[in-house]
Amino acid sequence: MLTKYLKDVIFSMATFFLLVISVNIMLFPDTPGFLGLNPHPYLIVVLLMSGRFGLKEGLLAALLASIILSVYVFLENQPYFSWSLLVEKSFLLSIISYFLAALIVGEMRGFNKSYERTLRHENIELKEERTRLKEQLEIVTEIKEELENRIIGQEETVHSLYQSIKALETLNEKQFYQALTQLTARFTGATKVSLYMINYSQDSIQRVAQYGWPDEEGAQKKFPLYEDIFGLVLKFNRMLTIKEISDDSEHLSIWEKCSHKAYAYVPISMASVIVGILTVDDIPFLKLNISTIRILALIAELAVPALKNIIKYQDLQEMVKIDPITELLKYDSFVSVAEVEFKKTVRYQLDFSLLFVEVTGLMQIKNRYGHDVHIEALKWISRKLQQALRSIDIIGLGPQTCQFVLALPVTNMEGMLAVIDRIKKLEKCAADAPQWCKYLHLYYGTASYHPSLDSLDSMIKLAQNSLKLNKAFKLRTKSSKKLRDKKDELGTVSGVKA
Amino acid sequence: MNWERYLELKRERHRPQNRFRPENEIEAKQALALGLIDIGQYVEYSLTLEPLLDSVHDPDPDVRKQAIRKIAEQRTPFSIRMLHNMLLDEDEEVRLYTASELDRLEGEMQKHIHQLRKKLIENPNQLEIRFKLAKAYIEYARLLLLDNNLRHFFLNKAIGILNRNIALQPNNPDYLFYRGWVYQMQGNYQKAITDLTKTIKLNKRFAMAFLILAEVYFELGEYHYVKWIMNVIPVKKQQVEEYNVHLYWKT
């Protein structure tokens, strides 16, 4: 199979020779083969061939030109041809000129060709380099785009996420729950997020925080723990997303029936025990992706130390003697402090009084105004009681709920009654008295020190008995008053009828 | 360009033990162009970049401004939502910059719409201008309009324009895609499915059409369709967000 180059060589040589021979036949028919002409016209063909293709091709053209010329010499001298004609000076000069031209021009062309080859090689190398750089640029552009997208979405900002969650450690429990949902929304692009905490003792799970929901009514709603989708999350003990849920028709039907549908359920585990479940209730389709899932897992993992801290703080709060709502001493701690004062009283034969205060109506306030107002009322009462006391007096929570107990050192019965009056005044005349104040009723139980009382316990019992009596008396008075009022009312009605 | 710094970088290049550490993004890019750092190092460096949201509270006011502008330039619903959230930021300056950026964005979009409308009045039969105007309405409604009624008003306008174009070129995948997208935004899912399916039939490489169709099925709760679409979607790796979604749903 002839190569393209070889075909080109043969075609060029044939064309050049045919051209010269045609010119010879057409224009110079009297001198066939340009015999005797020097320099011989075939030299042009040799020059063209060697100049175009190089040494080998030039030599080939010179050989062909010599053969053609020999053929012409043979034909011209027939039948008198003799071999001596081929060694004639004019013939030899032509032949030598062909080969010399082929050699010189061919060499020159060869040199040019090698130079051209080098340049071409360099060109190829440069092209390769260009392609490589182009590819590199494309990669860099891709990376840049990817990075920009990541940065804007905060999707890979683990550092930032870690810092944010770390900051949650300083919050209290409620704030932490709310902040965790907000943080999840910020880092994942979710529009609605909820947080549920598990109460294993009650087999329930309670929604403790929500983000992005318009109404906060169901914020504190409780659900059974081992039913519906939460049961599945507990069973698998791993993150469940809508993709995995929809893989199983049974799970999907459970999910569809449940009232707290979410696209992702992320368990928050503490020492391999699930303590809470973070749910992504609504998220744009494009944001529910691999990156978001990774971030959710990360949030659940990073939230644990913060949660641990909060639990530790709660434990510490439990351990300390102060009640966190009223900021008063708990009963046990009150007794231990009052005991010291009582001993002093016995030793120095001083006055000492105990005052029990029971507050009713708090449940009514809770039912009517809600939990927050109930807490507010408790705080308000404790504040008022504190205002009525001196700095040396001791106040604490009573043994029962809604009971307060006051130890009044160096105070006799009269002084104690003065304190009760002060409390009553403060309760009634308070400028900041809220509207729920009318539901509150205070009952008092008192006991003053007498040398016959040998312990604080006996004083406490006396005070408690006094409280019981006081309460019973007041309630009886109230009911009889109500009865009287009713009777009066009935009388009026009957009077009207009459 | 800082030539002293450049020469220093050059010198450091010949010291393999002292690897060059770019100080900012521009320097990193220059170093990459000069071959002082390779792509791996550039990526490593870029990953350690301070996140854009953190830059919003940078002590340097220029950095703060730039960060907010960068967020605004993203022009995605997420970034705009982020800006709206930043309007409630504790820092007054952040609130101010954010408000000015939102104003600027709105101004630009309104100006663009105005120019296109003017062009359309001059050349009422230009399909391309009509299409551009429809796209501008869609972008405006999608990004900046929080009020539902106003949003629907602009989306309906876009549908009207696209309907006229589709009447003349019923097999143009671009027109069909945008109309399908608008239907999806309006919650008109059946019409969206019709348009988007037709778009995909006309152009099987139309990744966004696949994605929006998947979103429609996601909204409808037809998750098996979402998975099916995500397995055949012709999404490229460069489309990071779309690719991440594809990876998530791919089975």
By helix and strand content of chain B, what is the structural category?
mainly alpha
Q: What is the helix content of chain A?
A: 55-70%
Shape of chain B: globular
The oligomeric status of these chains comes to heterodimer
Intertermini distance of chain B: 50 Å
Strand composition percent of chain B: under 5%
Q: Sheet with the most strands of chain A?
A: 6 strands, antiparallel
Total DSSP helices of chain A? 15
- CATH fold label of one domain in chain B: Serine Threonine Protein Phosphatase 5, Tetratricopeptide repeat
Q: Could you give the order of strands across the largest sheet of chain A?
A: 3-2-1-6-5-4
Number of strands of chain A: 10
Unreliable stretches covering 5 or more consecutive residues of chain B: none
Please write the string of helix (H) and strand (E) elements of chain A. Answer: HHHHHHEEEHEHHEEHHEHHEEHEH
Q: Give me the count of strands of chain B.
A: 0
The level of helicity of chain B is: over 70%
CATH architecture of the largest domain in chain A: 2-Layer Sandwich
- As a whole number of angstroms, the C-alpha radius of gyration of chain A is 55 Å
**Can you give the mean pLDDT of chain B?**
82
| Major sheet details of chain B | none
